[in-house]
Amino acid sequence: MRKLVRWTISLDSWGSTEVRVTRQHASLPRRTSAQRGFTLLEVLVVLSVFAILGVIASQIVNRVLDNQRTLAERGDRLAEVQRAMLILQRDIMQLNPRGIRDELGDPREPLLIGADGMIEFTRAGWRNPLQQARSTLQRVGYVVQEETLYRAYWPVLDRPPDAEPVLQELLKDVTQIEFFAMDVSGNEHSFWPLLGDSAQDPNAALAGVIMRVESEPFGAVERLWTVPSL
Q1: H/E stretch holding 87
Q2: What is the pTM (predicted TM-score) of this model?
Q3: What confidence tens digit (pLDDT) does each residue in 72-108 have?
Q4: Do 139 and 110 contact (CB within 8 A), yes or no?
Q5: What CA–CA distance (Å, rounded) separates 53 from 56?
Q6: How far apart are the C-alpha atoms of 67 and 75, rounded to whole Å?
Q7: Could you give the CA distance from residue 32 to residue 150 in angstroms, rounded to a whole number?
Q8: Using CA atoms, how far apart are residues 204 and 188, in angstroms rounded to an integer?
């Protein structure tokens, strides 16, 4: 509470001057706490909170971008695997009983599965849109070199001495691939054709081909395709 001093000057009827001093109590407005500015400590606290929120937001954005990048890479990889499986399926399901002669002139079976898990066979359906003087049958094989799956094919069935296969890259990052023959009894064979009496057993006739492949990032994948009887 502050005091106000009021001075009053008046003239009386005789021309003399009279000075009066009066004091009054009056309330003057004071500065309230709401009118005060921010202190340096308060500003620093606010800036720290905003900095922490900014770091959290940037981490969330980076995580979302990483997830999107991973999903895109997985999608591309899945498309590559599916493409390779479709090519394999197309070849195997068109298995043909036509045997061939190798570079030395020795006969070879229509389907060969080696102990190393690789496969070679004759397939039908080799398209010939240019009407070239060649067969619609094709000898193909699948082999892994340096963790890459290749499809090999030969331009002719009966190979000349200098015949070399043409390699087509199918799938990278293949750690292992194996092929097995399955007979009509459901038994798996790591090689084909069978030897001895088993080759003449009707219960051991070929019914399908099994493929087991391990590749990043999906791990082991297995496919079974039924094939025409040879």
Answers
A1: helix 40-92
A2: 0.70
A3: 888 899 999 999 999 999 999 999 999 999 999 999 9
A4: no
A5: 5
A6: 12
A7: 83
A8: 10
Measured distance between the N- and C-terminal CA atoms of the chain, rounded to whole angstroms: 115
Whether omega for the bond prior to residue 193 falls within 30 degrees of 0, making it cis, is: yes
CA 78, 80, 81, 83 torsion: positive or negative?
positive
Q: Is residue 148 part of a domain?
A: yes
* Residue 134: domain span: 90-226
Q: Is residue 34 scored above 80 in pLDDT? A: no
Which of 113, 108, 97 lies closest to 194, judged by CA? 113
| Angle subtended at Cα 170 by Cα 166 and Cα 172, rounded to the nearest 5 degrees | 125
Separate counts of helices (H) and strands (E) for the chain: 1, 13
Handedness of CA 38, 42, 43, 47 (dihedral sign): negative
Query: Rounded CA gap, 156 and 162, in Å?
Result: 12
CB 189 within 8 A of CB 201: no
Structure tokens, 5: 């001093």
Confirm whether 12 is domain-assigned. Answer: no
pLDDT, one tens digit per residue, over 161-218 is 998 999 999 999 998 999 999 999 999 999 999 988 888 899 999 999 999 999 888 8
- Give the CATH number of the domain where residue 133 resides: 3.10.610.10
170 phi and psi, to 5 degrees?
Answer: -110, -50
Neighbours of 144 (CB within 10 A): 19
Residue 63 included in any domain: no
Q: What value, to the nearest 5°, has the Cα angle with vertex 225 and ends 221 and 226? A: 160
Residue 48: inside a domain: no
